[in-house]
Fold this sequence. Notes:
By secondary structure, the chain is mainly β. Helix content is 0%, strand content 42%. It contains no helices and 21 strands. The protein has strands at 18-20, 26-30, 39-45, 49-54, 61-64, 69-73, 80-83, 93-97, 104-107, 111-113, 123-126, 129-132, 135-137, 147-149, 152-155, 159-163, 169-171, 175-176, 182-186, 193-195, 199-200. It has a 10-stranded mixed β-sheet, with no helix packed on it. It has a 7-stranded parallel β-sheet with strand order 2-6-8-11-14-17-20, with no helix packed on it. The protein starts with 17 loop residues before the first strand and ends with a strand. The model has no long low-confidence stretch (mean pLDDT 90).
Amino acid sequence: TDGDGQTATATFTGLAPIDIDTTAGTVTVNITDNTAAHTATFTDAPADQDMVSIDGGLASMTFNNPTAALNVNGATAADTFTFDALDSGFHATLDVTGNSGSDTTNLNMTNLVVGSGTDSHNVVIQTNTINLGENIDTTGSVTPGAILLEGNVTLSADSTLTYSGVNNLQITGTLDLGDSTLTVSDGLASDVGSIDGAVSGT
């Protein structure tokens, strides 16, 4: 916007992929376009790295496994976050937050194990729709982390949730099993988890 209040739009095409080869404690991916819905797809990349590709002409980004957290934030449009794979060395917190009230997260990875050594990490998904087709394990460290699925969960494949600790498993919306099986594995008999919404499926 210039001094007279006139606004122009610059369009960039053919942007080269971004490769970040330094290791950060926290990697944050923000979708800031509030005018259109976007899909961010996360995949494994070589040499202890992960890659995110976002549609709409945005450049893909490759980054080293973070040591603390991968934070993904949507805009006010109905964005989709798809996790097809993360590097086998990824053990940090995964925190996905949609901001439109109609965002979707697709968890398609085979296994996600967070936490290592004495570092406790969590899996927190806050989108309206969560399609779960993977195993999640937050007991990779001495002190287990939490699995918080804050949305309506639909199983897209047989899945196992492994956790330990009071209130360390929470599903705040409905749970649709479809024709798949959800196995919940807790570390102690005293562990408590909760599903707030209705459960359906065969």
